[in-house]
Amino acid sequence: MSNRKENSTYSINEKIVHEECDLIYAINKLGGRWKLYILSKLEGRKMRYKELRDEIHPITERMLTLQLKALEEDKLVKRTVYADVPPRTEYELTEYAKKLIPIWNSLIEWGGSHKEIMKEDL
């Protein structure tokens, strides 16, 4: 149970995010610099933490860990720990996250064309 008051601005905003606006809810779950990028790297394959970190080289280890935990909590990434020695952990997209593939592919296309338009203004 949250310590925040039910009528606080935070509580009102949380209610809007979780109950009233699906777009705001989706942006809240996928927003930020790294989440969609991490998900896109997992498209069609399982990856270990180090592989993800190496492919997303500007991300800090702390940020990658936080983002993976959030994606796992939101049921977008499945984390599997194997009882190998040393232990091995793999990440993969959930079936629900795979529904986002056409969305991020459209965003990639849009981003590329928008960058070109912005270059014209320079």
Key terms:
mainly alpha; Arc Repressor Mutant, subunit A; 122 residues; 11% strand; 3 strands; 2 domains; three-stranded antiparallel beta sheet
Can you give a write-up of this model?
The structure is a single chain. The mean pLDDT is 90. The chain folds into two domains: 1-30, no CATH class; 33-120, Arc Repressor Mutant, subunit A (Orthogonal Bundle), CATH 1.10.10. It contains seven helices and three strands, in the order αααβααββαα. With 122 residues, it is mainly α. It has a three-stranded antiparallel β-sheet with strand order 1-3-2. It comes from Chishuiella changwenlii. GO terms for molecular function: DNA binding. This is Transcriptional regulator.
Question: What's the topology here?
Answer:
Blueprint: H1 9-20, H2 22-30, H3 35-41, E1 47-48, H4 49-55, H5 61-73, E2 77-82, E3 88-93, H6 95-98, H7 101-120
Antiparallel strand pairs: 1-3, 2-3
Helix pairs in contact: 1-2
The major sheet is characterized as: 3 strands, antiparallel
Instruction: Give the CATH class of the largest domain.
Output: Mainly Alpha
Succession of helices and strands: HHHEHHEEHH
Structural class: mainly alpha
Number of helices: 7
Strands, total number: 3
Question: What is the CATH architecture term of the largest domain?
Answer: Orthogonal Bundle
CATH topological fold name of the largest domain: Arc Repressor Mutant, subunit A
What fraction of residues sit in β-strands?
A: 5-15%
State the fourth-level CATH superfamily of the largest domain.
Winged helix-like DNA-binding domain superfamily/Winged helix DNA-binding domain
Oligomer: single chain
Low-confidence stretches: none
Task: State the strand order across the main sheet.
Answer: 1-3-2
Pfam families: HxlR (PF01638)
Organism: Chishuiella changwenlii
Keywords: DNA-binding, Transcription, Transcription regulation
Domain HTH hxlR-type: 21-119
